[in-house]
Design goal:
The complex is a heterodimer of chains A (163) and B (487). Chain A is of the alpha/beta class. Chain A is built from four helices and five strands. In chain A, helix 1 crosses helix 4. The termini of chain A are far apart. The C terminus of chain A is likely disordered. Classes of the chains: A alpha/beta (163), B alpha+beta (487). Chains A and B meet through helix 2, strand 3 and helix 3 of A and helix 1, helix 4, helix 5, helix 6 and helix 14 of B.
Chain lengths: 163, 487
């Protein structure tokens, strides 16, 4: 049960839209390499908006891994460390698809839910996510292990074994 | 070429929509086009895979409405295997589907429609959001919204393992039945859902219909669009979200088509325009007539307002009373785009009442949940009413059951051309002589929200906020001014 754990590692993305699935790949990498740890859950989710509320409630710390597209000049594979505050202000989205993480978190707080005290986001710059395919591009694939390692270091659990 | 105004999210994650507004030489609105990013290669991705994988693949198409994709896919699988679900399996599926309708519709009304109507269309953007709705309706009510969706999602989880991305979907049945000891909780959820649906409708009547300004907005010409309508109806022409025949009515409310979803290609045409990747649907027998409304159009709408217009009524008693009241206020057909919100709440009540009925059905807990008397056909067309409108999944396979053809028609595809027209009408009210009046963004966004279009369905959440941007361009395409909204 979520409430019994303190930390959630949340890999987001769509694994059948190529590089969109990098967050999922990072979560899988962590799952594969970390020893059993009852204090940490690793979840993959192809979700948006409101669905995240169900996932993050009850955790003290949440680390999100996801893909991001910032602007055309950004280099594929660039990794950003973000906080929820970096995601801007609460919005009134124009469609269900536009309900963002920041608004979801504020909603949970407003409702008095047990929201995470700390949310850290690792976002990997991607260039393409409109073609249905499995697997990551080489320049994105190489980011998976380092980000997974960084996340585990963040947790003070540098237990990832070398391949 | 006239001037062009672009309304485009700064970032596109989990929302790829863009509106292009073209002005004529006088600076008045000539056309508006709703565009979404194309997701390519889905058919190629599916070809060669076993058909039974489809109900597990298709929920990934959309991070917001995966259950309807799962259900349409499962129904297509029934037909490929030539098998009907057992009565109990059908009840379980309908239970799952009703739960999905309740959850999705409330989220839409309170999170999206609520800020416009409960807080108010002219309120500051800083308060015109879900947090503002909570301040207005009170924390207890807000918690009930969250509670009702948590409970309904528990039902989906019970049946389909994961509520966001259901894992169930077997030809002729369901992977898991309902145990007798689980019935009590389901009944409690159904009762709670009915009670809450009635509350939500009362709130709508008090806060929206009771406010002349809001009612005038609903009835106003910019939000009035005369089209055809399409949706599923049952044997009595009442609303049905899981199955039935597709009924089409014209802009005057007269039935012009009534057909089985398997015959959709005879009635629904798909048209390609250079300004959008979406294959625009229209009534095939009328032919493509472009982006026009009125009696000469061949465009139709789907979703809650369309279902209100095509059905002779609701299938459950309390929802029927609410439907009758809506008819007494708006008449039929109702072309008021903002009335999508009202129709949506009435549908949530029907779904809740339906859940109540299913929850109390003795057959629900039978162990007869799978019919495996397969008569393989190699072709299946599954159709459901998704919350946002008619959803069709069409698959064909080789003799080994491997996918050879896939065609999907989703709600936003049906509505794409009408959305363009709705935005055009809203823009016309706010752009005159090249001058963009304040409130243009509000008007366009409100039209958007009524339809709640699915925008490409990638599943990102980052970077987060997606303010809309208006680029005002001169006739040479140069940006004269950029308007953006910060919350």
């Amino acid at each position: 049960m979520a409430q019994q754990h303190r930390t959630l590692i949340l890999g987001l993305g769509n694994p059948i839209l190529g590089d969109d699935g990098v967050g999922i790949a990072i979560a899988r990498e962590i799952k594969k390499r970390r020893p059993a740890d009852p204090a940490t859950d690793v979840i993959e989710a192809s979700l948006a908006g409101r669905f995240l509320l169900d996932l993050i409630t009850g955790y003290q710390t949440v680390i999100v891994a996801d893909a991001i597209m910032t602007d055309e000049k950004a280099e594929a594979g660039t990794v950003y460390e973000l906080s929820v505050d970096d995601l801007g202000a609460v919005v009134n989205p124009y469609a269900s698809h536009a309900l963002d993480l920041r608004t979801t978190v504020e909603l949970g707080r407003k409702l008095g839910y047990d929201m995470p005290q700390m949310i850290r986001i690792y976002a990997v710059e991607i260039k393409e996510n409109t073609v249905f395919r499995e697997g990551l591009s080489p320049e994105i694939e190489v980011t998976v292990l380092p980000v997974a390692q960084k996340i585990m270091q963040d947790l003070g659990k540098s237990v990832i074994r070398d391949q | 070429m006239g001037n062009k105004i672009t309304i485009n999210p700064v970032t596109r994650l989990e929302g790829h929509g863009k509106i292009e507004v073209f002005l004529n030489d006088k600076g008045d609105v000539e056309d508006a086009y709703f565009q979404v990013t194309e997701l390519r290669g889905f058919e190629r991705f599916c070809i060669g895979r076993p058909a039974e994988e489809m109900p597990r693949i298709v929920p990934n198409i959309c991070g917001v409405c995966p259950t309807p994709h799962n259900m349409a896919s499962t129904k297509a699988l029934d037909l490929i295997y030539g098998v009907a679900p057992t009565p109990t399996a059908k009840l379980v599926r309908r239970l799952q589907y009703a739960a999905n309708f309740i959850e999705d519709h409330y989220i839409h009304f309170f999170f999206l429609g609520g800020p416009d109507f409960v807080v108010g269309p002219n309120a500051s953007p800083a308060t015109r959001n879900i947090l503002g709705v909570i301040d207005k309706v009170g924390l207890d009510i807000a918690k009930k919204v969250i509670d009702v969706r948590a409970r309904t999602r528990d039902i989906i989880r019970l049946i389909a393992s994961k509520p966001p991305h259901p894992e169930g979907g077997l030809p002729g049945g369901v992977p898991r039945g309902i145990k007798e000891e689980e019935r009590k909780t389901i009944i409690e959820t159904a009762d709670f859902s009915v009670e809450f649906a009635q509350f939500a409708l009362k709130l709508f009547k008090d806060a929206v219909l009771g406010n002349k300004t809001y009612l005038d907005l609903i009835l106003s010409e910019p939000y009035n669009l005369k089209t055809y309508y399409m949706g599923l109806v049952d044997d009595y022409n009442k609303q049905n979200y899981y199955e039935g025949m597709l009924r089409v009515v014209d802009p005057n409310g007269k039935e012009v088509a009534f057909f089985h979803p398997r015959d959709y290609t005879e009635y629904i045409g798909e048209w390609v325009e250079p300004w959008t990747y979406i294959r625009l649907t229209h009534l095939r027998k009328l032919g493509w007539k472009g982006l026009i409304e009125g009696n000469d159009t061949s465009l139709y709408r789907v979703g809650p307002l369309a279902r209100y217009n095509v059905a002779d009524g609701m299938a459950t008693p309390l929802a029927q009373k609410e439907y009758e009241y809506m008819v007494s206020v708006l008449g039929k057909p109702a072309h008021h785009t903002l009335a999508y919100h009202w129709a949506r709440l009435i549908e949530a009540l029907q779904a809740a009442e339906d859940m109540q009925k299913i929850a109390n059905d003795p057959l629900l807990t039978s162990k007869d949940i799978r019919n495996m008397n397969f008569q393989f056909t190699g072709k299946g067309i599954g159709c459901v009413e998704a919350c946002r409108g008619t959803l069709i999944h069409h698959y064909e396979t080789d003799d080994k059951g491997m996918i050879t053809k896939v065609n999907l028609i989703v709600a936003t595809q049906h509505n794409a051309a009408p959305i363009s027209l709705s935005v055009k009408k809203a823009a016309q009210a706010f752009i005159k002589g090249g001058e963009v009046k304040e409130g243009m963004l509000n008007m366009a966004e409100m039209a958007f929200r009524a339809y709640d279009p699915c925008l490409g369905c990638a599943t990102h959440n980052l970077p987060g906020t997606m303010p809309l941007v208006v680029n005002i361009r001169n006739h040479q395409g140069r940006v004269l001014e950029t308007l953006t909204r910060d919350a």
